Amino acid sequence: MLKSVEVNVITSNENKFKELDSIAKKYNIKLKWINLPKFEVQSDSLEEIVRSSAVIAFNMIRSPLIVEDSGLFIEALNNFPGPYTNYVRRTLGLKGILKLMEGIQNRKAYFMTALCYVDEEVIRVFTGKVVGKISESIRGDKGFGFDPIFIPDGDERTFGEMNIEEKNKYSHRGKAFEEFIKFFLTYIS
Amino acid sequence: MLKSVEVNVITSNENKFKELDSIAKKYNIKLKWINLPKFEVQSDSLEEIVRSSAVIAFNMIRSPLIVEDSGLFIEALNNFPGPYTNYVRRTLGLKGILKLMEGIQNRKAYFMTALCYVDEEVIRVFTGKVVGKISESIRGDKGFGFDPIFIPDGDERTFGEMNIEEKNKYSHRGKAFEEFIKFFLTYIS
Q: Active site located where (chains A, B) (predicted)?
């Protein structure tokens, strides 16, 4: 059993930390930002990537921690770019994905987050998903990553056309983190 | 200094082992095949990937070893698919790359291999490259990976249209391995 409820979050992206922290505060869970890039293995599975990242990080810092990773999975492209979403954003960009999708009717896609919690006693992976489709064109300049070409089900706008509160209603990262919190509150009680 | 000249090769691809072994035999270097997938970190740099793979493998088997990784780097696509070549082959395939290259004049690309040797005393990375271009269509059914859409400079045929001896004349993997051998023969003498 844990003595403290402080949990370290390993990420070099301050916005991700802030997004999680704004949720954690509602539950009185204290997060601490560790500004480090996570060590990532090559794998088709986000769960496997965060699990190995988290174990490696735990072997260094030896206190409870979270690692998360997110990706865009496009059905007609065999789930490409999946775990390599950041790399593909930097190389092919939004236009590259739209080019690959030219003439393809099935535009189904989802964003997914996998989040791993580790401490001395447990290792658990939680996931969150938002299902939607790839837009026909780039729309909006808000958000980051592939937000301007992703339309969540139940909306007509891309994530790039939404402000942060609107986007958070759908957030895959938020969903994964809420799953963690459900577990964690029981675990520490 | 090494007592023996046996070097382990970590790969789950028997063809890669055979390709290296056929070269090693000419120099009287004994290779031993360890049939294991290598542990791969996510990185834009093949050198970094093989270096970390090799160190991790050495911590397990504790005897001299080699790990190699290869990728296709396309100039007009910011070097995509690079270190994620196998993943992109499985998801987008040959047609996906040709679609991304539609209407693009600059078709320059290269295949590169990075190969890391580790023992108790040294860790060294060697590279080999073959420069060429992406073809306009899929041609030939020999080889593997992206061979049917890659034309090496100095030839008109794709790697997919060449037999193994013809392809080996250009081989990036062979070049990297020859670099290793140059080092190794001096090292053990």
A: 69 (proton acceptor)
